[in-house]
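User: Teach me something about this protein's shape.
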Amino acid sequence: MAADRGAAGPGEPEPGAGEPEPGTKASAGFPGASPGEGNFVARNGIGELADVMGIEVLEFTVERTVARMPVVGNRQSIGYLHGGAHVVLGESLGSIAANLHAGPGRLAVGVDINATHTRSATGGYVTAVCTPVHLGGSVTVHEIVVRDEEGRRCCTMRITNLIKDAPAH
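Assistant: First, the predicted structure itself:
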């Protein structure tokens, strides 16, 4: 059952109290993206789950992909940003970056992801920066670092994607 993102729970600020609007499209425009890069995400999006979680892509290139996500609406019952929310953010960025690298007629699919959580966020936004560690013809590896609004590292992830031919439609 999906949580009602519009209702404040115990200890939560009322909706609209400095927090993002629910349902912000993750596939909105991307400052700094080239027309080809922007078209990739405009055409494909970054996924329904990313949209539901309020993920916003801020930069999108092969060398660097940046997005932010609201903490409110993505927290555990104790008020901390859910570890799985970090992983959704990281996997979303690593996947779109790997697919951009893969190019036309190719598809990148995740085969491994790991996350180390080092700090908890309780409000505002977290920002993730995804950079390539390895960009090969058959495998990509990306590191994703998530920071809170004060710039403190909250989570470090690594995702490995396999690049293969896209299925014929």
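Now, about its shape. Residues 17 and 165 are 46 Å apart (CA to CA). Residues 83-102 form the longest helix (20 residues). If you'd like, I can walk through any region in more detail.
User: That's plenty for now, thanks!
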